[in-house]
Design a protein that fits this description.
Number of helices: 13
Distance between the termini: 52 Å
Largest sheet: 2 strands, antiparallel
Helix content: over 70%
Strand order of the largest sheet: 1-2
Order of helices and strands: HEEHHHHHHHHHHHH
Shape: globular
Strand content: under 5%
Number of domains: 1
Radius of gyration: 19 Å
Length: 334
């Protein structure tokens, strides 16, 4: 199976390279374009096609057909729900829809997942299970959308999460989820190349939301094998630690200053690292390395007793809290 996974990643990368020119052409044709100066936080100098979401979706469809997991119930349900996310994302990239419409599309896609049995199950109360399913899926979808503040950042974070989900689902025996994670990793590598190395496209809302939604759904159906729930319940949270951290930082910062939470601004983690003197490339690399470190700790926790696993989780939470306090101090926010 190892060689099948590697082959699938390579195929997904190659197909993303093949799909990129087509997706860029479609983006220009249907005006999925990010114009310079369209918002205060945008610094690019020339119009950029928002083609990342189209590439990711094409690669997913190609990959699940080639790998033979098209009819696997969790995979089919996730892909069908992702069509809703992509449609609303493309609508947003073309026309710039209001936040309530974005949330409506995300809620609709989440409701479809729940109707297919993909939801939180461990709380013992049907209402709470459904509530936290909506909270998780919509929260992570928007976290990826918010963290997409620099070329390569969201695609890199998505690829890192997919990489660790490959290992997690492989050892849990969830073969179809392993293959879907491999497909997503290959798609992220391809998009990262065109977004970061060549600067030929943006992820756009369609790409960032599609990536966040698909990974959030994957994490929801991932079941660590034979491990106590007390030492595994927080693993999905740690796998998305950097997008969650960035969203929390931005939300806290804007609420403290009575600013609209959903209004785009240059106060994300990436922007603060640059303000501290880091180069843009080093800022992106720092966030990627942070994600790798915390994802490694998530799997270390799986091998600890419940008490030590939760102590480790608590220390990571404390570190995140102190980082938010430090980054959002008045001395560092201008």
């Amino acid at each position: 199976m190892f060689f099948e996974i590697v082959a699938l990643i390579i195929l997904a990368v190659l197909f993303s390279f093949a799909a990129a020119p087509i997706s860029i052409s479609l983006a220009w044709r249907f005006r999925l374009i990010d114009d310079p100066g369209s918002e205060a936080h945008k610094t690019h100098k020339s119009p950029m096609p928002r083609a990342g979401g189209i590439i990711i979706f094409i690669v997913i469809v190609f990959g699940i057909v080639v790998s033979g997991i098209l009819m696997s119930p969790p995979v089919m349900s996730i892909v069908l729900a992702s069509i809703i996310i992509l449609a609303f994302g493309v609508w947003d990239d073309i026309n710039g829809i209001l936040a309530p419409w974005k949330i409506f599309g995300q809620a609709l896609a989440t409701l479809f997942l729940i109707s297919q049995g993909i939801q939180v199950h461990f709380l013992g109360n049907a209402f709470l299970n459904i509530f936290f399913t909506f909270f998780w899926i919509i929260g992570i979808t928007n976290a990826f959308n918010l963290v997409d503040s620099m070329d390569g950042l969201a695609a890199g974070l998505g690829g890192i999460t997919a990489f660790f989900l490959i290992f997690g689902t492989f050892y849990s025996g969830q073969e179809s989820l392993t293959f879907l994670s491999a497909i997503l990793l290959g798609a992220c590598i391809g998009v990262f190349y065109f977004n970061y190395s060549l600067s030929r496209l943006f992820l756009g809302d369609s790409g960032a939301q599609l990536l966040g939604f698909t990974l959030a759904a994957l994490a929801l159906v991932y079941i660590p094998p034979g491990l106590p729930q007390a030492s595994s319940w927080f693993v999905p949270i740690l796998l998305f630690s950097i997008p969650i951290f960035d969203t929390t930082l931005v939300t806290v910062s804007r609420l403290r200053r009575n600013l609209p939470v959903y209004r785009a601004a240059r106060n994300h983690t990436y922007h603060r690292f640059v303000a501290l003197g880091m180069s843009p490339q080093r800022s992106v690399l720092t966030m990627h390395l942070g994600a790798i470190l915390i994802d490694c700790l998530a799997f270390v926790a799986l091998n600890l007793s419940p008490v030590w696993a939760n102590i480790l989780f608590g220390l990571i939470l404390l570190s995140g809290f102190l980082a938010i306090v430090w980054l959002d101090s008045e001395k560092r926010v201008k």
